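Hi support team,

I've been running sequence recovery on a batch of backbones for a student project. Most finish fine, but this one hangs at about 90% for roughly twenty minutes before it completes. I'm not sure whether the input is malformed or the queue is just slow. I've pasted the structure tokens below so you can try to reproduce it. Let me know if you need the job ID as well.

Thanks,
M.K.
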């Protein structure tokens, strides 16, 4: 989370789409260890559940390519994606994805 010093910023407004609990996506070893909230009582937070950034027809090849673009220097063995591929097969081989998004607006004092 973005920490905004109340001495330097005012009228803070955070708009979030599908952020949920970010801790859910973390490995067990680090869950709850770095996600302290930086939201103060004077800030306005709007939460929305609908997807605003979506892609349709995502298959295992797209997921592998996306992962490779995030971590280009890391070679990933096929067995890493085996569980994902099996889950995709159970739903017809393709899924729709929605990305979380957050916007923070504030006025500098």
């Amino acid at each position: 989370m973005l920490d905004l010093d109340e001495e330097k910023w005012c009228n803070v407004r955070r708009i979030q789409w599908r952020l949920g609990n970010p801790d859910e996506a973390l490995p067990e070893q680090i869950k709850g260890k770095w996600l302290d909230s930086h939201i103060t009582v004077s800030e306005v937070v709007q939460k929305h559940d609908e997807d605003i950034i979506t892609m349709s027809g995502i298959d295992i090849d797209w997921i592998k390519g996306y992962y490779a673009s995030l971590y280009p220097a890391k070679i990933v063995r096929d067995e890493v994606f085996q569980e994902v591929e099996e889950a995709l097969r159970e739903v017809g081989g393709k899924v729709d994805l929605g990305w979380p998004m957050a916007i923070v607006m504030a006025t500098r004092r």
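--
Follow-up from support: It reproduced on our side and the slowdown came from queue contention, not your input. Strands lie at 9-17, 44-48, 54-58, 95-98, 101-108. No action needed from you.
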